[in-house]
Design goal:
Helix content: 55-70%
Strand content: under 5%
Keywords: Signal
Strand order of the largest sheet: 1-2
Protein name: Pentacotripeptide-repeat region of PRORP domain-containing protein
Length: 603
Amino acid sequence: MQKKGLVFMWRLSLVRRAAAVGGRVKSSGSASLPYHRVLKMLHAEGEGLPAAGGVFEQFRAFYRQVMADKAASGRAVKPIEEFCGASEDVEPFALVMMKVLCDLQKMEDLRFLFAQCLLELPSPSIELFNVYLLAISLTDSFNQYEIENVVEVMRARAIHPDVVTRLSLFMLYIRLGQDYSVWWPEIRDEVLSIEKSGQRGQYPLLEVRLQHCFQTILRLHHDVTMIQECFDLLKLVDPKRISSRLLLPYMLLSANNAAAPPAMTVQIVELLEATRKVEDKTSECTSSRTVSEDAETERTNVDSTEPVLNNELTALKLMAKCAKWGDVASAEYVREYLRKHPGIISPTNQPAVSLLFLEAASRGAMLKEALAVLEDEVPETHCQPGPRPKMFLESRKVTLLNADPIMTLARFVAFGEASVEEGLAILEERREAGGGVSHKSLNVLMEAAVLLKDEGKASVVFAAFEGLGAERTSRTFLLLLLSMPDAASATARIPEVLAEMSDLGIEVSRDFLRGALELAIDAQDVFTAMQMVGYHEKRSISIESKLSIRLMRLLCLVADVDSVRQLIAALKATESPVDSRTVSLCVATFNKWAIPCDDLKAV
């Protein structure tokens, strides 16, 4: 069906060309000319195409008879000219009949007719070659030798190729796996020149060949710039050819192609939406003029409200592309589009859309928008940096970003064009305007202070919680500790911080305990580290394997066998992994110093 549709698209152009060439023929008796009969049959409803094919069968029978007479008499013959009645009728007949044979998929008959024309016509027009190249390009049966033979005939007959010829050869060679990209700039410039000078009417096949060229490079080429330039040419030369069937694969390709800018994809989505509306109106008008045979079918045709961007993964990939490029305008368009069509993104993946917009705003240096989406849309469970520096969509098992949006925002505040002070000013302005300010955005400013190792800025943000009506969390206190210049000073303040958290009724979280334990290990503070282990055991929170190994090695270094026993007991109580190699290292060290540790051998 798709191939038949492609064939149908060039019918009008070819009929126009045949009529133009045939306009030189005398009007007397023109209705009986073979190519006129074929044109009438093509315009007829029903059996027009098979009937037109019957004219070629008449020519074939005539050809056999003429060639038989030639064998008997030895005279020179021109079968097509004799069949048409005059030499000037040969090319119009060949053009329209080649179109018929292509529609009927009789390519060998088409090749035979083209070869016979070359034998009879001393100087065939370039249009004959263009139609032939168009016809064979609609099949998969051509090869390089056939194309080179056509080029050689043109060279021998001194027939100069036009822009349509070059477009055809460009496509055919691409389909044969050869790179002729160097031709494209010249082809593009010539098409622009033709359009500017208003000479498009001299190239009746230009529009359809541009469409074929776009479809070819869209399928086989990887040059994003060339694809976009060809699309722009087609839109300039013949906007009516921009259909939803043409735009949909382009949208999918650009959404999944990392080299294509997101603005291009958004432009295609907008154009596709507009085209769909026009097509729906046309379909509705057609349905209203036609007597409905099936009410359900008619209702389906008219009610075409499904969005063009209707695949969840494609939409998320497009948002991820906007995030990578820092294209806030495109990200805003996609986000609004998804809001208008709420069924595209599942509730589980809604936070991903907000986080991707947050990434785009951060990379696009738009701090106010980033903080707004963090406050209004990002759930509390997603508002702190994750364990891995990337954004992995668990439901789809796909990595959308090789970055953590929350950390990207924190880095933008710390090292980009923004600052912690600017962030506080934006949040104060938001508060005065009646908007809510929470620990989600303030903690990100604290994250920026941690990256800068600036305890002063962290303290300023910490103090701003009360003025902005935000509640501190255990993460807030941990970030205050992490902002200190060294681990020793941070570890020294852990008891004070724990006491303050207890006074405020803030529960010690897993995240805080992990961070505090790591600080204590970095500071080589065994007492505080074991205190954090006790908190883990008391709350049945598992201890990360990496930290338990580091702590056990530290205890081994200071030869603290009792703390090793306590640590192993806590690991077992919290169902945390116990590294046997590290335990063996401790046993070997303790034995070297004659420290009793036989009970550790059974671990």
